[in-house]
Automatic annotation (TrEMBL), chain A:
The chain crosses the membrane at residues 6-22, 29-45, 51-73, 94-113, 133-151, 158-178, 184-203. This is Putative MnhB-related membrane protein. The keyword Transmembrane applies. Pfam families: MbhD. It is a multi-pass membrane protein. It comes from Halomonas cerina. Signal peptide: none annotated. Keywords: Cell membrane, Membrane, Transmembrane, Transmembrane helix. It is found in: Cell membrane. It comes from the Bacteria. The lineage of its organism: Bacteria, Pseudomonadati, Pseudomonadota, Gammaproteobacteria, Oceanospirillales.
From TrEMBL, chain B:
This is Formate hydrogenlyase subunit 3/multisubunit Na+/H+ antiporter MnhD subunit. It comes from Halomonas cerina. The chain crosses the membrane at residues 14-31, 38-56, 83-103, 115-134, 140-160, 172-191, 211-236, 248-268, 274-294, 314-336, 348-367, 379-397, 417-436, 457-477. It comes from the Bacteria. One of its GO terms (molecular function) is lyase activity.
Length: 223, 490
């Protein structure tokens, strides 16, 4: 694994995360997330963690994707949610969301710098993990911003999943694919799946009850 | 000689794991066959506290015991000391009371059949998660148990299935999930810098520095979010508004405390000398005491008042951080004992108060404070239970709340940290203000006499037993305090 060989998948991960988080067309965003999760599985495969890759593909891509499409109402014959997110946060609040993501990024970046900088001569395996670390940081910051910014509950669930993947990447990039890391990521994947399923089911119930797709801490939803 | 000791240790370990895992099996059983009467539930759960009492006896004789478990190359550590044993006992008693109360609740009102059946596996999962949190000595077990606890708690809050419950539950779910990611990032940094996950190994290899500081800040943020400590408490009160009393009781008594327990464990091992950060936590706790007390005083709904009082009472626990950081041994010992006594006393009293409030609301059919007018004549027993629980919250003698605050006061004066003395005084006055507001409404004699709905006697009895337990813990505090003196502090 060379440094340049790792750069391409890492940047593709970031691009897919951006596509997933910025697209207002919800079906396209969910598809982008599934592609993102499959690419994550590929990343675990390349880190010599085949079991983790399998779990990521099944739990992260397949089951979470199904949960998200269920939340949209595209599985089965129920009434489906509008496919475009028309919620907009007031301009005043929009500005306040940036500092949170930036503070988070600065803190995490400083800590990562501290952990990787003070080691002795970095081994070649560690150098090849650098792109993964950078991608993890970028994806984490994007996910946090999106989680704080979006109002639509499905997009917040997507943002949470992307944020979680960013943390997993950082975890693997910092400590390598040791068994402890794999255990932590495994638990994290299960938790993310259960959270997504619960959140999607709740979203459907809320939409069925009074047609809302937000928590109501922003402007009223448009039918 | 050593062979018999080994055999005893083996028996202890088996009993401990049986006591930890049995609740989830019972929960699955009750999912399939939902119980209809209170007595079978009580009898089925009673062996667990008895087993834990025996374990506590062994711990007080032979000291703490520990072990490790290795699935697939991982090494997962656990240990049982006096503190973990006491918390396990407390958890089992409260779970038993809550389960019994839930059966009574089902008999008194019409709950949806599937929601009531779904309560049991969630209760079992919550029991297993809490037990694991008390005995875990490893960040991986702690992470898994914390997440299991959070998801079970969200599920239990969603059981009523009404509109507001769903919105509050969704908000709780989102906060809990993001809190767990902050925690995971902190763990990632610790693992990256020291390569260990077990608490003892982390304590030995981690040196204070910027990386440890940032990791601890992230861990603390995640845990404070889950524990509803002052600026991060926004999700707590709405969640309790429409939850079942048996669920609210468990949540206010144990779930938020578990996050505090983990934070304390990590803090004591990773940065026990960080005075400035500890003072920051203490100040947050002080603000929580004042803000929670004020909001409880302003609340117009009985359950909201009890929920806000939880925010305030959790603040007292946070005062332990400045009193433990860089102070003398005498101060630290006093603060250590006071904190866990306050936690146990508040857990018992808050569970009793949620149940008594639930009884009042169910009987009177009215959840506003003004709707309780005349409750002193119509519903004397729930009101008395509420009053006894309030004695502990206010910290009047002879309750556990009084003993805990007395110890805390002594520690603060001995350390010369006068700010906390003022906070304790103000918090006590606020608690008295909001409790007497409820009692004043209840003692209005001119109210018209409405019909009250009769409740099963067991519901009142459970609440009363817990309230008396909180009172009795103040009188019989010697035994748990002796166990705490033995160990629990790393």
């Amino acid at each position: 694994m060379s440094l340049s060989g790792e750069l391409f998948p890492a940047s593709l991960l970031v691009i897919l995360a951006v596509a997933c988080l910025l697209d207002r067309h919800l079906v396209r965003a969910c598809l982008a997330f599934i592609a993102f999760a499959l690419l994550m599985a590929l990343a675990w495969w390349r880190l010599d963690a085949p079991w983790l890759a399998l779990v990521e593909a099944v739990l992260g891509a397949l089951l979470t994707g199904m949960a998200l499409f269920h939340g949209l109402g595209r599985l089965g014959g129920q009434s489906s949610l509008p496919s475009r997110d028309r919620e907009r946060r007031p301009r005043r609040q929009v500005m306040a969301r940036w500092p949170a993501a930036l503070v988070w990024l600065a803190l995490a970046g400083a800590a990562v710098w501290g952990v990787t900088g003070n080691g002795e001569l970095a081994a070649s395996a560690e150098v090849s993990r650098r792109p993964l670390l950078a991608a993890g940081l970028a994806i984490m910051a994007l996910g946090l911003w999106a989680f704080a910014h979006h109002l639509h509950l499905l997009r917040r669930l997507l943002a949470f999943n992307v944020l979680g993947s960013g943390v997993f990447l950082l975890l693997a990039g910092l400590a390598g694919p040791v068994v402890e890391v794999q255990g932590l990521i495994l638990v994290g994947l299960v938790v993310a799946l259960v959270g997504s399923v619960l959140g999607a089911a709740l979203l459907r119930r809320l939409y069925a009850l009074d047609g809302r797709v937000t928590l109501g801490d922003g402007p009223k939803s448009i039918r | 000689m050593s062979a018999s000791l080994d055999a005893l240790l083996c028996v202890q370990t088996t009993v401990l794991w049986l006591a930890l895992l049995a609740p989830s099996l019972l929960g699955l059983w009750a999912w399939r066959f939902p119980p209809q009467r209170m007595l079978p539930v009580l009898l089925a759960g009673l062996p667990l506290p008895l087993a834990t009492l025996w374990l506590l006896h062994r711990v007080s004789v032979g000291g703490e015991f520990e072990g490790a478990w290795s699935p697939g190359g991982l090494l997962l550590h656990w240990r049982l000391d006096g503190l973990a044993g006491l918390l396990l006992l407390l958890t089992q008693l409260l779970l038993l009371a809550s389960a019994t109360y839930a059966v009574g609740h089902r008999r008194a009102t019409t709950l949806a059949e599937c929601a009531f059946a779904g309560f049991w596996p969630l209760l079992g999962g919550l029991a297993a998660a809490l037990g694991l949190i008390w005995v875990a000595a490893d960040l991986l077990i702690l992470y898994a148990a914390l997440e299991l606890m959070g998801l079970c708690a969200v599920g239990m809050m969603l059981l009523p299935g009404k509109g507001e419950a769903l919105v509050a539950g969704m908000r709780y779910l989102l906060y809990a999930l993001v809190g767990s990611l902050a925690w995971l990032l902190g763990v990632a940094l610790l693992l990256g810098s020291s390569g260990r996950l077990d608490l003892a190994g982390l304590a030995a290899t981690t040196e204070p520095g910027p990386v440890t500081g940032i990791a601890m800040a992230l861990l603390a943020t995640g845990l404070l979010l889950k524990a509803a400590i002052f600026p991060l408490h926004g999700w707590l009160a709405p969640v309790h508004a429409s939850a079942w009393p048996s669920v609210s009781a468990l949540h206010g008594a144990l779930v938020v405390k578990a996050s505090f327990f983990i934070l304390m464990q990590l803090w004591q091992r990773l940065m026990p000398e960080a005075v400035a950060a500890a003072w920051l936590l203490g100040l947050l706790g002080s603000l929580a005491v004042l803000w929670g007390g004020l909001q409880a005083w302003r609340a117009s709904d009985l359950k909201q008042m009890v929920a806000w009082s939880t925010v305030g009472q959790l603040g007292y626990l946070m005062l332990a951080f400045p009193l433990l950081a860089g102070t003398s041994v005498a101060v630290a010992t006093l603060a250590w004992q006071a904190t866990w006594l306050q936690l146990a006393g508040h857990a018992l009293a808050k569970a009793a108060m949620f149940m008594a409030a639930g009884n009042l609301v169910l009987s009177a059919g009215e959840s506003r404070l003004t709707g309780l007018a005349g409750a002193s004549r119509r519903l004397p027993l729930p009101l008395m239970t509420f009053g006894i629980a309030a004695v502990t919250l206010m910290g009047l003698p002879p309750s556990a709340g009084f003993t805990a605050k007395w110890l805390l006061l002594q520690a603060a004066i001995l350390a010369g940290q006068w700010l906390w003395v003022a906070v304790l005084m103000a918090g006590t006055l606020l608690a008295a203000a909001y409790v007497f507001r409820v009692l004043r409404c209840a003692f209005v004699e001119t109210a018209p006499c409405h019909e009250v709905r009769p409740l099963p006697a067991g519901m009142d009895l459970m609440a009363l037993l817990l309230a008396l337990g909180a009172l009795g813990l103040g009188l019989g505090a010697e035994w748990p305090l002796a166990l705490l003196r033995e160990g629990g502090r790393p």
